[in-house]
């Protein structure tokens, strides 16, 4: 079974790829709503989701995770 963090990272990567394809015509607000729901399903609170840079911060009582996609690379920071 994949960890909750791994599942959020997978979701973030999917969201980033989708945004790259749809950013010219999609409303980013919908991405925030969907991300908030996904984080909640996995026991996290979405703190932020930004377009430039494409980044997500979410947290639980045990940790805060920051994910950022830039230049085709994924960067992550986990504070426990």
Q: How does this structure look, described?
A:
- With 80 residues, the protein is α+β, with helices and mostly antiparallel strands.
- Helices cover 41% and strands 32% of the residues.
- It has 2 helices and 4 strands.
- The protein is globular and about 35 Å long.
- The relative contact order is 0.18.
- The mean pLDDT is 96.
Shape: globular
> How would you state the average pLDDT, rounded?
96
- Please mark out the parts with pLDDT under 50 across 5 or more consecutive residues, or reply none: none
Radius of gyration: 12 Å
Q: Tell me what portion of residues adopts beta-strand conformation.
A: 25-35%
Figure out the total of helices.
2
- Could you give the count of β-strands? 4
Strand-and-helix sequence, N→C?
Answer: HHEEEE
- Helical residues, percent: 40-55%
Instruction: Give the class from helix and strand content and strand pairing.
Output: alpha+beta
Q: What's the story with the biggest beta sheet?
A: 4 strands, antiparallel
Strand order of the largest sheet: 1-2-3-4
The N- to C-terminal Cα distance equals 21 Å
């Amino acid at each position: 079974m994949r960890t909750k963090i791994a599942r959020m990272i997978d979701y973030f990567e999917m969201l980033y790829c989708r945004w790259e394809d749809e950013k010219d015509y999609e409303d980013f607000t919908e991405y925030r709503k969907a991300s908030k729901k996904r984080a909640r399903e996995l026991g996290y609170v979405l703190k932020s989701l930004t377009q430039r840079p494409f980044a997500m911060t979410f947290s639980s009582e045990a940790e805060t995770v920051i994910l950022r996609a830039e230049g085709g690379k994924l960067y992550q920071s986990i504070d426990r």
